[in-house]
Amino acid sequence: MESPVIVALGLTFTSLILWYMGDLSKKAQTQKVSLKSGLMVGFIQGIAVIPGISRSGSTIVMGRLAGLSPEEAFRFSFMISIPAISGATFLEILNMFKIGEVTLPSYWWLGAILAFFLGLFSLILLRKFVISGRWKIFSVYCALLAFLMISGHIMR
Questions:
Q1: Contact 81/122 with Cβ under 8 angstroms?
Q2: pTM of the model
């Protein structure tokens, strides 16, 4: 988690799968989620715990590879994120109580409200990109970020 090289490699992997997705998204597919596609997407979500690998990007790409339509792949990726994010939140709350950090800043609720609405806006934007197939923009962004991280690491 603390190695910039590992994060850069994860970003490079993300960049490559998103670039590939840009070509794949032109192919029309309409299959619904099945046990096989669900297991494939779930497997890649487990791999996406590696820093730099986009959970949503990799699960949507795997959904598309499994034959799901862009809309279905996006929906399923979002739905399977709920237990993962809820579980991580629960573990963080337990950890806060364990180490005695239960005091919150006075305006914590403002941060929570802003995070909710910015997250919702981001999901709407991501959905538009997924359905329109404009993945290569994110691919270039990830590749550039990986390059900058490796360059910064080498220069140190």
A1: no
A2: 0.81
